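Wed. Picked up where I left off yesterday with Putative MFS family arabinose efflux permease. The coffee machine is broken again, so keeping this brief.
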Amino acid sequence: MDQNEKKGIWKVISASSMGTMIEWYDFYIFGSLAVVISTKFFPADNPTAAFLSTLATFAAGFVVRPFGALFFGRLGDLIGRKYTFMVTLLLMGGATFVIGCIPSYETIGFMAPLLVLVLRLLQGLALGGEYGGAATYVAEHSPKNERGYWTSWIQTTATVGLFVSLMVILITKSLMTKEAFEDWGWRVPFWVSILMVIVSYYIRKGMHESPVFAKAKSEGNISTNPLKESFGHKYNLKFVLLALFGATMGQGVVWYTGQFYAMNFLKTVQSVDSSQVDTLLGIALLIGTPFFVVFGWLSDKIGRKTIMMLGMFLAIISYRGIYKQMYKTTDVTLKTEIVDQTKTVPSIKELKDGKLDSLYTTTKAYTDGTTLEEVKTIHFENGKVMVDDKGKDKIETKVTKKINSSDRFMLILLVLIQVIFVTMVYGPIAAFLVEMFPVKIRYTSMSLPYHVGNGIFGGLLPAISTYLVTTSKEAGDPEFYLEGLWYPIIVAAVCLVIGMIYIDKKINTLHE
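Structure written out below (tokens, as returned):
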């Protein structure tokens, strides 16, 4: 590849990557703020149910991604790659901005969660059309023997989008008080996205159509019915199913375990301070992101299958040990409390309609530098303690831990190991999928298995795993915090077996 060709492909990658990164930012800002959002758009009388409802709404955006893949994939194979993912960019950006403008549950009642759900569905549809277009566009500009390397730059965008979302949240938090952020400041990251979308739109506007697609179109060799050709013919359908159950299904759960489940686990199960979690996760992502390119490049040398299957295998055998160590790292029952520094401060918070909250804030310090704040809230109405649906007193306890530098280093390392697994399964996947299908139905054929694997199997992981952890904790299981891992372990194991048996190492030469 000469200098002009390299310059051209870097322009393609930059334009595609920036837009895709922004779409991931838009998509994940919701997940990054799930804890705060649960208090704004859902009833506040049951925080656990509100958080689970938020995760379910987050997952809904993933569930509809396959439908977006079908709709926009068909458009991409009919009218072209460029114009299709211009539409997805604007749809995603608009939906994200509007989420930041929706009034809270206290203001408009059940319209709040309903509107959020509708907008999450629009986000999911948009993302379903974005990835296949960007990956196909870059692959069709790349030399055949370097597709893994060049498409791996697109693979970094999902993690970079999550990283940027965490950084925007941290910056916003640092510029205002905790109360202001929880009141209205959480909306700022949603509003910021519209500025990034406008910039990306103008960059993408100047891009040219994929040369491979343009050539096929000029020769009259494009599909008149991409859906029928992709899924109605047994030969191609076989590869769609193989891509799903032998690659993307496992890749999806490894991706979300290593990033989103790790974040939710630290914030909700381990009760680590949200800003500390965002910081340590951001550091792990920053260190780990270059490995997407490393493994993409390596897949050009030794094959896509070897790297992806090894990543799944390492994740399967390591997850329980990693999360057990993560839990122990911040477990205050294993630390020594400085008893004479423990203090409890009572306070009253007056609400509307004869309701008030009685708060007891207890702070504790430990010899290793860890601090803990426990806020016990008792809800009163007309002088009596309120009761929940089960007839029990409405008493909530919220714990927040601030961990020491040694524990932060350990957690960064443990999350980084999971991010490396992510880069192994995700770095080569774009080139792997592109090479499985012919040009005229490539956008449609590769988008569906990718978004079913990631959108459904991966996207449901936070909600399913959190549910498993919650029910195990209520049942008194001493290792309740590990139960949520059974979902990704089982899904990845099934995918590993199918991939090892049925995926040919030379599958990337099918449509050369």
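Quick read: Residues 339-402 form one domain.
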